[in-house]
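Hi support team,

I'm opening this ticket because the web form for multi-chain structure prediction keeps timing out on my end. I have pasted the exact lines I submitted so you can reproduce it. The total is 841 residues across two entries, so I didn't expect it to be a heavy job. Is there a limit I'm missing, or should I split the entries? Thanks in advance, R.K.
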Amino acid sequence: MSTHKESARPGLLGGGQAKQKLLAFASLIALIAVFTVLKPDAFMNRDNIIGILQSTTVIGVLAIASTFIIITSGIDLSVGVLMTFCAVMAGVFMVNLGIPMPLGIVLAIGMGCVCGALSGLAITKLKVPPFIATLGMMMLLKGASLIITNTRPIYFSDVEGFDQIALGSLIGDLIPALPIPNGVLIMFLVAVVCAVVLNKTALGRYTFALGSNEEAVRLSGVNVDRWKVIIYTFAGGICGISGLLIASRLNSAQPALGQGYELDAIAAVVIGGTSLSGGVGTILGTIIGAFIMSVLINGLRIMSVAQEWQMVLTGLIIILAVYTDNLRRNKK
Amino acid sequence: MTQLPASVAPLIEVRNLSKSFPGVRALDNVRFDLCAGEVHALMGENGAGKSTLMKILAGVYRMDGGEVRVDGQAVDIQSPAHAQALTIGIIHQELHLMPHLTAAQNIFLGREPRKAGAWLLDEVRLNEDARALFARLNLHMEPTTRIADLTVAKQQMVEIAKALSFKSRVLIMDEPTAALNNAEIEELFRIIRQLKSEGVGIVYISHKMDEIQRIADRITVMRDGSYIDTVPAHTPMAQVIAMMVGRHLEQADKAIPDTSANEVLLDVRGLNRGRAIRDVSFQVRRGEILGFAGLMGAGRTEVARAVFGADPVDSGEVRVAGVPVRLRSPQDAVNAGIGYLSEDRKHFGLATGMDVAANITLPSLSRWLQWGLFLNKAAIAQVSREMVEKLRIKTPSIHQMSKLLSGGNQQKVVIAKWLVQDCEVLIFDEPTRGIDVGAKSEIYKLLNDLAAQGRAIVVISSELPEVLLLSHRILVMCEGRITGEVRGDEATQESLMELATRREVAAVE
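Hello R.K., no limit was hit. The queue was backed up. Here is the completed structure from your submission:
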C-alpha cells in the first residue's frame, strides 16, 4: 500500500522546482553568453562584472522580501518606498540624532519591521486587500520621507565608515584581485538566510501554506492573522536592509527615490518562477531573476541601446519569462 | 459484456483507451459503449479511472492511445469545444456557473444572441431561448434569476439546460445527486427519464447503489484504471460491489458500547446563530459516536463550524472535558483538542499544492520544531510515514503533492493531521463524501477504532445508512433546531426522516 519512493526532496534553496530554476539559470547564462560574444571586452571584464553585481544588490534584496509576500499570494507595492523610508530614518538616527552606527542600523531595520507589521495589520485586522493596503502604505511612506527630510537629501559624510557597508570590500582586503563590494556579500548573505527561513522554519512553511490554501490553514487551527503579520514584518525588515544598502552606496538618503523599485522587484520574482497566485517560489529563482534584469540592462547599455529601448526589451523579457514558465507548467 | 441491441448504432464506442499521468497509469485498455436513450452507469472506487475516462470524452484530457468513435466515426477529442461540437455535454461534480450572472446568461455564455448588426446583445431573445429550454425540461424557473439566488439543485438544472442548449445527445453526469435532497433527486430523475425518451444517452457516475438500480439500464465497472465488466442494472448489488473492490465487503458489525458512565468530553449548550442554529445543546462522552442526521441545510454543518470556532455565534457555550472554550477561532478549538474534517476537502481541508507530509503536520507544526524555529524534517517525515502506513494512504511518497491523490486518500490525509495533533474530539462532516465503497468501510472501521480509543466522535452525514451504521446515538436536525434524539440501535431510516422533516409549524406549542 504505502511505498516510500523518495522523490524530489526539496533542497536548501529550492522547493522541488529544480527544472524551473534550471530554465531561469539557463536563460541567464545564455544572456551572458550573447553579450560576451557581441562585446567581449566591454562586457566580460572584471570592473563591469563587479558593476553588475553591485547594481543587483538593492533590487535583489527587495525582491527577496517580495518573494515571501508573493508566495502567500499577497503583493507588496510599498517595498521600494519603504526602502527609502528606512534610508531616511537611518539618516535621522545617525546624522540628525547622532546615534552610533551599529544601533542606527538596528533601528533602521526595526523601522522596516514596524512598517511591514502595519501593512500586515491593515490586511488582517482591517481586512483591506494586500494590493490596496500596500498601495496606501506606499503613498503614506513616500509623503512621510519627504516631510521628514523637508524634501532634501540627508548626507552621511560625517558618519564614519557608513559608505563601507555597501562599497567597502572585505574580500578585496584579503584578495586584492577580487574587490567584490560588501553590498554583494550582504545580498548573498540575506539570500542564504532567507532561503533557510523559507524552507526550514515554521515561518516558511506557513508562507507556502497560506498561499496554497488559506482557509485550510485557518481550519487547521493556525493563527492565520498572526502569521501574516509576522511574514509582512519579516519582509519589512529585509526592505530595511535594502534601505541601508542604497543609503550606503549613495552615502546619502534620497527621499524622492524608491518608487518603481517595487515593480522591478516583482519582475525579478516572477522571472525567477514564483507564481503570483501563491504557494510556489524560491529565493534562488528570485536572485537569478534579479541578475537576469541587471545583466540585460547592463549589456544593452554597453551595446549603446537607448534607455527607452532598454525598457521596451525588459518588458518583453518579463512577459516572455512568465509565458515560458506557463508552458512548462501546462505540459505537466 | 451484455449484447447491444443489434439495430441501434452506439452513440459512443470506446476501445483499448489508455491514458497516463506522470507516475500513474490512469486508464489501461478501457472499453465503453453508450447507446441512444440509455442510462449507462459507470461505477468504481475512487481512482478507478471513471473521471479520467469522462474527461477524455469531454475534451478536458487528451487520450494517449486507443480509439473513440462517435456515431461510428473515429475521433480524437481535442478540447471541450470539440466535445460540444460532437454533441457531448458534461455536468461536472463541481458546478461551473458564474454566480453573479443570471441563469439565461450562464446558459448562453459565449453564444449570446445579438442584434443591431451583432453590435448589441439581444437580452430578450436570450431569455426567451432559456425559457424554451426550461419548458422542454418542465422546469419552473425564471431565466433572469441570478445563479447565486438558486439552490444547488436548481443550479444543476441550469447546467443540464446548458448542456441541452448545445443539442447534446450525450450527457455525462458526475455524481449529480451528491448535493441534492430526496425531493430534488426525484426531480432530477424525472428529467433524466424525459431526456432518455428523447433519445439522449446518459453516462451516470455515482457511488449510490440504490439510485443506480432505479435509474440505470446498464452498469460498467472499472477498477484501478481497467475495464472489469458491463452488466445489466438489475444485477445484484453485492456482485457489483465485489467487482468494484475485487473482494467481498464485510459489513462492520454493530455493537453499541455502554458509554453512559464515561466522562463528557464535548458539552455544547444553547448554541445560537441567526436562523441557522437555534438553541442547540448536546453532549458527547468518551468513546461515543454521536451522529447528526438531517436534510441539506438543516444546520448540521453550521453547528460543527460554530463548535470549531470557524464561524461566529450569537450565543452559546462549549466545554471540552469540563473546561470552557472560547468560540473565537479554530485555533482556540484546536488548542482545546477539537478537530474538524470539512465536507469540502479541496477548499477547507487540504493545502492541495503542498505535499502529504506538510499537510499531515500542519496543525501540529509547533511540535516539529527544533529550538522553536527550525522544522525537524526527519521527525516530520517519520510521523508522516507512520500515518501513511497506519491509515494505508495510497501515495508514491510522503512528498507527493496532495492534489494528485484520489479523494479517499486525501480524506485519509486530513484524518491523519488530526490524529497527529492528538485531538480528543473529532467532528467528521460527511466523512465519506465522494469516497468509494472499499475506502468507505476502511474509514468506518477507523472511526470505530478512534472511539474505542476513548475519543469523542461526531459524525454528520446525509446518507442515512451511514448514520445508522456508525452512530451510537443520533441527533436529528431540521431548520436549525434539534428535533429528536434516537438510540443508534433503535433508529430506522423512516424514524429519522420523520424527525428530519418535522418543521417548526408542527412543533409550535
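A quick check on our side: Chain A has one domain: 18-34+41-323. Let us know if the file doesn't open in your viewer.
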